[in-house]
Input
Amino acid sequence: MTKLGLRDSVLTLTLIPTVIIGLLLGGYFTINRYIELDEILYQQGTTISEPLAIALEQPLLEKNKQLLNRVISYTHNKHSPVVKAIALFDDNNKLIITSNYHRSFDDLLNNEQLNNLNATQVHKTDDLITFFTPIINHTSPDTKWDKSIFQTSLGTVVLQLNRDQAVIGQQRALLVSGIVIILALVLAAILALKLSHMFMSPLNKLVLATDRLVEGKRETGLNESMVGEFELLREGLNTISYSMVMQKDEMQKNIDQATSDYRETLEQYETQNIQLTMAKKEAQDANRVKSDFLAKMSHELRTPLNGVIGFTRQLHKTPLNKNQKDYLDTIELSANSLMTIISDILDFSKLEAGAMELESIQFQLRDTVNEVMTLLAPSAHDKQLELSIYISPQVPDHLTGDPTRLKQVLINLLSNAIKFTEKGAIKVDISHRLLDDERTSILVSVADTGVGIPVDKQDALFTAFGQADSSITRKFGGTGLGLIITKHIVEAMSGKITLNSAPGNGTCFTFNGVFRLPNHVFASDLPTKSLLGKHVLYLEPHEHTHHAVLSLLNEWQISVTGCFSDAEFLAAIDNKEQQYDICIIGDMASVNDMQRLKAHVKAVRESTDYLYLMLNTVSHSMREAFIGSGADACLSKPLNHRKLCELLAAPYRLDHPVHNIEQNEQTLLPLKVLVVDDNDANLKLIYTLLNEQVELIDTAHNGSQAYSLSKSHKYDVIFMDIQMPIMDGITACKLIKESSLNEDTPIIAVTAHALHSEKEQLLKDGFEGYLTKPIDEDMLNQIICDHSPQLPVSRDKLKNMPQSPPPFNSVRLDWGIALQHAGGKSELALEMLNMLLLSVPETLSLLAQAIADEDCKQVLSIIHKLHGACCYTGVPKLKSLAETIETALKSNCVLATIEPELFELQDELENLLLDAKN
Output
């Protein structure tokens, strides 16, 4: 609804009542005038017609027509122009005489109202009013009183009156009313305009003055006096103006004072900012010095520690007495503990700097967890703890993520559980929740029956150097960094870690991590087909271990008779109708239980074909004792699904050679592959590994050669090194994609070390994927699986393969790693190591010259080439140093910052040459 202004409101409130009152009064008086004129006309007609009827009685009796005519004419003339006609009818309704015969007079002759009239009757039309008055004979008396005779009618006088004068009067009254109303409206409008002007003129001045105040002007312009309340408003606005001026002056003074104070404060802030900037720079320098110190001390400490651990292991191979072995075990344990502390401190330093990144590689979850359980099992066995693991059958085994960090989390949690548990069990449960078609969340819980943690101490566990009790460090050892590192790793996996604990009731840590599901996975290589339909008798008193093993056996479609107690086990044996293919007995295997277990072995031996024990021990002598008493083999708890399956299936695979005999002639895939690398050792290794999987392989030493080959040959996959002379891998990739026969061929980047940002850039440059050195067969299999229509040949060459002795003894050489990277071929591993040794003098010379010239690009090129060679030759220390230096140089680091690492690298190369010569 639109709101009216003051002017419109005054006009509306003035005119509307005037119009309403004028219409009401005009209408009232006009209607009254209408009625009044009609009444006057009726009265006039009655006044004329009734005396006329009396006057005509005697002449009508005498039949004096002349007198009748004179009376009617006189009456007509006297009341003209109201009277239009006067007519006299006899008692038979016959016209006797009329004063005016007009065109509508014939209607009177046929009028039925002339019959039986006793009094005057009126008939009204639009133009006329007709009066019918009977002429009564009053002069003839009768002896009898008879009313009907007394009121005898002699005739009828008909009087017609014109309504023209009445209508004119009515119209005149209506016109006068309209004029009066219009005059009233005009007068009201004039008064309203006058009144609105009286209000609006001072109001406009007041509004203008208000606008001036809003604009900040000092003068309002209201100097002239006003009438009534407007004068009060004028004085009020002038007072407000004066107050605003005073307040503005006061505010300006305050602003000037505040500005002065602010300038002084700003100068103080600038001084403090300069001091803070200097302090920040000093803190950054101190943090850099700390990082450099930690990195340098890490290398300085790891070098002698590796020597201590390595020579301790060498001493274990020599003849030693019991005390010497105990001393060596103590030395190795102390060295490993110190190595763990150093690793924790370095990981914490990386976390503080935000430099910890997760890898994204394909791995098998169950094998990864088994590695952790196997590593920590001896510690649990020493304390007579039951260490068991259950992995839900629905959990996918093939995942893509960082298995090293996952193992680090499990090791931290399980180590703490073993450390703080004196008796009972430690249980690991793994399940999962599928997030979508590409991701799954792995849920892991680690529960123990240890001392427990008070609620008020639980939050402190996830802080740096936090412990539930200050006495823990003295009693159990540790830095207090394990859980904070674990928490950060879990959060980096898009997960969360929680704990539930109470003093005396143990502790349960639960965490989850999000992993990607690979596009292609290898088929399971477990020999489960050999176990289909086998009947197994299984004894395990520990509930969690029992259900875990039972779940595996059921998953392999084995018929199992499970027993929780000795009584159930002996009852199953006594059932002679049932013969078992395999019997599995699980036990804590303490010294006191050996006789009981041997009795079980002896009792069940006749009821089963094969008998296996699962014991909480790694003691070789104890396992030999049980094997000597009748068991076929002994496994250490916790169970390893792969070892258990292969152990159970081994005799049946021998009975059915088709399951066990390896094909000497493996089918090669009909693929043609191009391998590009400027390092001969790397080229030879990739060529050797691919030669066992694909039919045709071409090699090139730089990007230019690769581009030339791609223009004349069509390849299924191209493996391309990045840093090469003449033409680098990125340029070659772009040229091949732009114009060659291999525009759609997947090109895989092969690099010794790549930062996360560099890997993303490689994918943007056109590479389909990347392969990080060192390369092994599993990584190569996955690449071929992802980018070829046929699956590669799956094999497991390194298992049960005889290890050849190293060519020379050196703490810098890990011959096992060299053999692993060479696919188990000792000749290839030795050839690659010789190629590295032959290149060392030239590398040292070029490196020294580049360092002297302070040529960072040349140093990076040399280190990158050396890093690639170290990836395959079993020199982990050299590889780690080269990787550290390459990462620093790629981060625009100056040579002075990595000078200690460069000197250490040169020393390691010289020492490696010296060890080889000796």
The chain has 28 helices and 22 strands.
